[in-house]
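Sequence design from tokenized structure. All designs in this work follow the same two-part layout: the structure record, then the generated sequence. An example of the structure record is given first.
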């Protein structure tokens, strides 16, 4: 069977095709992998024809666009990273983009794309996270390999020794948070006797929920990074003898505590009830004090520390003299 496709496009579009420029993507059959493609609307063609064995099947009048994509080769890929004892064999899909070879691999937690320069001197990684995964131990194993790859550790693809020439620092930070998430899910299942039927993948919200659930059960606090320039604003009534005198805010450092009802926390399609979430800011200084009226002031505090501590408890914090009782720990 002889299939022929002929079309004519302007010189600029012809150059884009020859240079391997893409403006769209197509889903590879039977996978979640997307391959880059160039979509050409019929208005950008002066003619188009598709024939099989000399019989015409399509022309410009009965199509809306034509999509070009690089050829894809299915291959067996064995990945090894000796420094962490990692070895896995998966199906990979290889295609070429300009001077680089791209290998896409479906892992249990994401699609891992490895871009390798033909000279084997330059390499980059990209990941597209899955919405869910099926095995938490596999998730931890694969996130260790991905962190190592992004960090510049030596690994092997089908026996070929490779090492990334650039560490992708921001990506590594997010990947390490993902590892904390998977490890926290493991702790919940092991120590709380919880069995999840569904594993939703890492996100900042899922990580926070997992940390709340585990540390509420363990009666421990956990550290959370603060956004840059994070502040707390509240009102002070100088007539209340329990309040700190306003002039002290501009002179002293304070431990600030914020307590909020938490309620039902959703994690992997299960619901966990946690009454209160208390955030402790350990190194606060006044950034701004604004007089609202004769007695009331608005105070904006900034935590000089880049991190805060979060406690999930059954009760609100209670001041007992110079000691703050958080329900599971006392701070003096």
């Amino acid at each position: 069977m002889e299939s022929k496709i002929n079309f004519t496009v302007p010189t600029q579009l012809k150059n884009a095709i020859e240079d391997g420029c893409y403006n769209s993507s197509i889903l590879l059959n039977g996978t979640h992998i997307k391959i880059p493609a160039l979509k050409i609307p019929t208005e950008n063609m002066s003619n188009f024809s598709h024939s099989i064995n000399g019989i015409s099947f399509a022309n410009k009048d009965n199509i809306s666009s034509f999509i070009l994509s690089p050829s894809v080769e299915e291959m067996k890929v064995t990945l090894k990273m000796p420094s962490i004892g990692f070895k896995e064999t998966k199906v990979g899909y290889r295609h070429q983009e300009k001077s680089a070879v791209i290998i896409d691999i479906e892992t249990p937690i994401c699609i891992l794309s490895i871009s390798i320069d033909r000279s084997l001197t330059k390499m980059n990684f990209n990941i597209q996270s899955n919405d869910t995964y099926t095995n938490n131990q596999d998730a931890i194993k694969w996130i260790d390999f991905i962190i190592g790859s992004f960090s510049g550790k030596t690994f092997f693809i089908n026996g070929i020794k490779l090492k990334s020439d650039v560490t992708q620092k921001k990506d590594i930070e997010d990947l390490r948070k993902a590892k904390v998430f998977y490890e926290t899910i493991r702790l919940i299942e092991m120590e709380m006797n919880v069995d999840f039927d569904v594993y939703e993948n890492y996100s900042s919200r899922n990580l926070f929920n997992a940390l709340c659930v585990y540390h509420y059960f363990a009666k421990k606090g956990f550290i959370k990074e603060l956004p840059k320039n994070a502040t707390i604003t509240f009102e002070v009534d100088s007539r209340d003898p329990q309040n700190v005198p306003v002039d002290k805010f501009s002179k002293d450092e304070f431990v600030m505590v914020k307590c909020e009802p938490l309620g039902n926390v959703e994690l992997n399609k299960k619901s966990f009830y946690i009454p209160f979430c208390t955030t402790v800011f350990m190194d606060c200084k006044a950034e701004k004090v604004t007089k609202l009226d004769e007695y009331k002031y608005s105070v904006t505090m900034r935590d000089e520390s880049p991190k805060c501590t979060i406690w999930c408890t059954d009760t609100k914090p209670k001041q007992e003299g110079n000691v703050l009782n958080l329900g599971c720990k006392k701070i003096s």
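Residues 3-68 form one domain. We note this feature because it recurs in several other targets discussed in the main text.
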